[in-house]
Amino acid sequence: MALVKPGPKRNSSGENPDEFRATLGEHLEELRGRVLRALGALVLTCVVGWFLAMPVYAALSEVVRANVPKGVNFQEPFTSITQPFMLQLKLAFYIGLTVSFPYLVWELWGFIAPGLKRSEKRPIKILAPISVLLFLIGCGVGWITLPAAFQWFAGFFASFPNTSLYQEPGTMVFLIVKLVLAFGIGFQLPVVTFFLTKVGIISPAMLAQYWRQAVVAVFALSAILTPSGDPFTMMAMAIPLTLLFFASIMAVKLTGKRGGRDPVLDDLD
User: Fold this and answer.
1) Greatest CA separation for the chain
2) Of 189, 169, 208, the residue nearest 82 (C-alpha)
3) How far apart are CA 116 and CA 108, in angstroms?
4) pLDDT in tens, 134-174
5) The pTM is what?
């Protein structure tokens, strides 16, 4: 009779991650499987992104050309025979990574979740959908600020009449992508603040005491994240983030004191 190798013991109570016992080889085997599935998903979505790259590029190029100052000769010349291929390949990777990102996070969560206590899982369960929502809102805010950011830079062309603007193809398109993603990432600040408070690393009292320093840090973070570097875009990110920061403090206070049980998260158990 064949012997069946027992698998790792799963965490039954959810309170003690040591109850999930597995050998190093079993952990590495599971990690290998998840990495291979994640890479497979990324490759598949990149293949799809290859066929979507040019329609996406055309749509974003229309946004760029619509905001180029009137009277400015705008050209995007290729300087190498390999540049068109590399541009499409880079766009395909960006599209593939964006589409497959939720699945990549799912695989990562599936690997680390068995080793977490129930009290550590509860904040993540409620913050995950909020994080996605804030990311989409942030990307939307970034998209809305694009015309104003372009117009701010375009205003300086008035001092240099009869000039031409030559940019490497893809430079302006990737600036749009980076700007939109920067807003999406920046809007994760309240999620990070809420999570760190719920797991006891920081407290609402500490946040309230050092709110001035926190606001300065938010403005500094906004200046770092915005790739365009213009003050309008920085303020467009910093002001909503400041409001979200104070909202996260209020949310922590309403859901209970640090280290205590809060009813919203308890419902997820």
Assistant:
1) 88
2) 169
3) 13
4) 888 888 888 888 888 887 877 777 777 777 788 888 888 88
5) 0.70
